[in-house]
Design a protein that fits this description.
There is one protein chain. The protein has ten helices and 17 strands. The chain has 367 residues and is of the alpha+beta class. A hairpin with a 5-residue loop joins β6 (202-207) and β7 (213-216). The longest helix is centred in the N-terminal third of the chain and has 14 residues, at 115-128. The radius of gyration is 22 Å and the shape is globular. Guanosine-5'-diphosphate binds next to α6.
């Protein structure tokens, strides 16, 4: 018969199979009298939070819980993966609680991107998804840029209430929270965990001066993220980690670009034009003739066109085609989680291909 063991820290059921999952403890720890899950272990010993993945059921419980608290909701998204990390539908669960939107990873943006243009685009996109944030800002949790500003905005908008931080996995929520812990508590050992109402999930609480707290919720998995179709080993290469260096291509009609084997861009018609790619500096871009593109992909996915690596090439999702007619100059075709291609002049017909589930959209250039 199965015996369930609970974490002495948060009470969650201990499991030893899924390293990224909630309640994970290494198998060796089962021999101890008191078992603590990896998340509580890290919190206890390093004042450091770790992201845990959620099941859909727990996710729904959290979302429902957010409607029952009276708080400020801080939603963290990845600015390079805005649509993939947006958690569409969250606003339906937060009730009347205000939402503050933070775009993380601003350090990967080329210097030429105008922050205000990006913020305006985020506001516009949020509105398209039915969300009207009370404030939108950018930060880099990793570099520590604009963390103070983010906290000042949180302080201003929370009106003496608790603050819940939500976001999907990979947006940098843990990195952000760890910054906040340092900023708010000065690294003292004051952080506690508590259970989210109606769930067995532990939340991390960072106390604030007025008796309220900043509460970190577990990261939510969104399967439609580029990060989930890529082998973990390739993520460092695929997800932009440094300032993206623009790569300019002069293309003739009926030429194709492959971004590794992850995405494809067909220039269909409009005469010779220039295109600027903004993706991870570690990804190779291959140019070929449109007529050869299908064959090249079929034969060289996983080798010349990688990532995906050879062992993943078979199971890699098919590329889905999205066609766009570019009527204005300086438009971006955005591959969520990967980056974007700026079409510098108007009058181009293009097709963008991304792995099934990964969104492709068009916007006015941020530059
Ligand atoms: P979580 O799943 O949302 O908790 O995300 P993590 O905090 O674990 O971060 C996911 C990945 O994004 C890690 O590889 C981080 O190093 C990276 N990351 C987090 N914040 C930033 C940031 O501000 N800039 C950059 N370039 N990378 C970041």
């Amino acid at each position: 018969s199965e015996v369930t063991i609970s974490c002495i820290g948060c009470g969650v059921e201990i499991q030893t199979e899924e390293k990224e999952g909630i309640g994970y403890a290494p198998p060796s720890s089962l021999e101890k009298d008191q078992i603590i899950c990896q998340r509580c272990f890290r919190l206890k010993h390093y004042n450091e939070v770790q992201d845990v993945a959620l099941t859909d059921d727990d996710f729904l419980k959290i979302l429902n819980g957010l409607g029952q608290v009276d708080a400020l909701i801080v939603k963290v998204v990845d600015i390079v993966d805005f649509n993939g990390s947006f958690l569409n539908g969250l606003h339906r669960f937060v009730g009347n609680n205000p939402v503050l939107l933070i775009g993380n990873k601003s350090d990967v943006l080329p210097k030429s991107v105008k922050p205000n243009k990006l913020i305006n685009w985020m506001k516009y996109e949020a509105k398209q998804h039915g969300l009207k944030p009370i404030d939108v800002l950018l930060c880099s949790a990793e570099k520590g840029h604009h963390i103070k500003e983010a906290l000042a905005s949180i302080e201003k908008q929370r009106n003496g209430k608790d603050v819940y931080i939500v976001g999907c996995t990979n947006v940098g929520k843990s990195t952000f929270i760890n910054r906040v812990i340092k900023e708010v508590t000065g690294e003292q050992d004051v952080i506690t965990t508590s259970q989210f109402p109606g769930t067995t999930l532990d939340m991390i609480e960072i106390p604030l001066d007025d008796g309220q707290a900043i509460i970190d919720t577990p990261g939510i998995i969104n399967r439609d993220q580029m990060a989930h179709v890529i082998n973990k080993k390739d993520l460092k290469q695929v997800i932009p980690r440094k300032e993206m260096k623009p790569k300019i291509f002069q293309l003739n009609e009926e030429q194709t670009l492959f971004i590794g084997g992850l995405a494809r861009f067909d220039y269909l018609s409009g005469g010779r034009k220039s295109f600027t790619c903004y993706v991870s500096n570690e990804l190779e871009i291959h140019r070929t003739k449109l007529e050869k593109a299908d064959d090249l992909y079929a034969r060289h996915k996983g080798e010349l066109l990688s990532p995906p690596r050879a062992e993943d090439a078979e199971s890699f999702p098919e590329l889905v085609r999205h066609e766009f007619m570019i009527k204005e100059e300086k438009m971006d075709i955005v591959y969520s989680g990967l980056g974007w291609i700026t079409i510098n002049e108007k009058g181009a017909k293009v097709a963008a291909y991304a792995p099934k589930g990964v969104s492709v959209l068009i916007r006015k250039s941020l530059i």
